[in-house]
Specification:
With about 70 residues, the protein is α+β, with helices and mostly antiparallel strands. The protein is built from two helices and two strands.
Length: about 70
């Protein structure tokens, strides 16, 4: 099972959704990829830099003001 630090920067990003397969594998999906076809849904791990990074607190604040 993947630990909390396996996905790098994504672990503290509001765009991340952890996906667990039927066999127990854990994947990090970037929800930006659902809206932007040019953005990877499943980026290579670990992510160390990302121009669209949004800290969990920032993403929650943006969602509450929309």
């Amino acid at each position: 099972m993947a630990s909390a630090s396996d996905f790098g920067l994504c672990d503290t990003c509001g765009h991340q959704r952890r996906i667990t397969s039927g066999r127990g594998s854990v994947f990090s999906m970037c929800e930006i990829g659902l809206r932007d076809p040019d953005w990877p849904k499943y980026p290579r791990m670990p992510v160390l830099r990302c121009p669209r990074y949004a800290a969990v607190e920032d993403a929650a604040r943006r969602a509450s003001t929309s």
